[in-house]
Structures are given as C-alpha cells and as structure tokens.
Design a protein that fits this description.
alpha+beta, Rossmann fold, Luciferase, domain 3, two-stranded parallel ribbon, 12 strands, globular
Length: 248
Amino acid sequence: VVIPHANVVRLFTRTSQWFDFGPDDAWTLFHSYAFDFSVWELWGPLLHGGRLVVVPEETARSPEDFLRLLADERVTVLNQTPSAFYPLIRADAEHPETGARLALRTVIFGGEALDVGRLAGWWARHPAGAPRLVNMYGITETTVHVTHAPLDPVTAASGPASPIGVAIPDLRVYVLDADLAPVPPGATGELYVAGEGLARGYLGRPGLTATRFLADPFGPAGSRMYRTGDRAKWRPDGTLEYLGRADA
C-alpha cells in the first residue's frame, strides 16, 4: 500500500481538535511495526516531543507485566486493539494496587471491532474521563484512522455494539448499497471512505487498485473513494456503528 508521508502528518493535524498530545506524554509501542496502528504509536510522540516506551515482546504477552510497565513508566497515551485491552482489564482488576498507580490520560482503541459492553469492568474502577476512552475505526488504505468515537459508561450499558463515531474532518464517509446509492439511517450498507487520507493504491497491482479505489460520485471531479469491505449503519444521532465484514 503506497501512502505518502504527508498523509501521516495530516492524520495528526486533523485529529488535534480531539486530542491534546504534548511533550509531557509518554506513549507505548505495543504493536508490531508491520501493523498500521504502529504508525500512530510511533509518530504520535515523535511529532509532539513526547516519550516512546518500546514494549518488550515478552511483556506484551503478559497483561500483568504490561500493566506494571504502564504504571512504572507513567504512560499517559495507550493505543490498543480491543483483544489486547480485555486481558489488561482483567489484570487491572486482579492487581488493584498496580492499577491505582496508572497515569493514563487517553486510551485509543483501533485495529478491530470493539465490544463496548466489555469495558464496564474498567469503568467500575476508573472514573469516566480518567482516562478518557476513544474508539477509532480505520484501515491501512486510509492511513490508520478514519473515525473518532468518545466512549463513556452510558455507551457501555447499551450492549455489545461497536460505535465508531464521526469521520476525521478531511475525510468523507459513505454508507452505500450494492448500486453505490446512500442507504437511509438505520439501514446496513458498505462503508466507503474518501478524502485526503487515501493511499495512492497498491504497489505494482493496478488491477486491484482499480477495484478498491473507485471514482467518488459524491465528491469533487477526479476524487476517489475506497471500498472498505466493512458493513456499517448510521445511527439516529448521525454517528456510525460498525457491523463487521461484508464478506463474513
């Protein structure tokens, strides 16, 4: 996937309205650098003058050891796939003395569907907003993140839904049917993404690029949109809910 460096810069400038990252923050590099989430983990602290804690592989595999590292290193910004965070919730419950030492300000979920109902145990021990929890949907072809959804205990009480919120300001998100027509709120469709974050395409694979990066019939002349292969629906409040893969 060919992504210009400028796409990463605009990812942080266009999301700055939601975050207050700065030189006092400590981040972790938890995920493999072969995973696109690591772009956010690496460049977040480097672009804001913060500190990056590289998590040893054996520590990443142990929720208890990782919890201890977060507390000892005074990590303030944590990026996690939901499947990595759920065991951390359990470790936090089993080791409350370590959990009480956490300095987290922000936890950002990405990389896979989030079951918000499973966050209730975390909020039972940590007040909402301390740290704040955010879900960000995205894919490699759109430069890591596409949407932003703040989370709270009321959201968790709504059940196992996966809210993904609203688009980053320089992106356009469509929920379309098989004829590329917008579906009404509440109806399921396929998610398409257009705007400044799109990759140039797949290196050396023009055929695949042509099937995934389509002309955007709703945008400016010459603009493109990416077919994600993910299902979603618009909620009554104008935010998006992720519903899984279209080919599942």
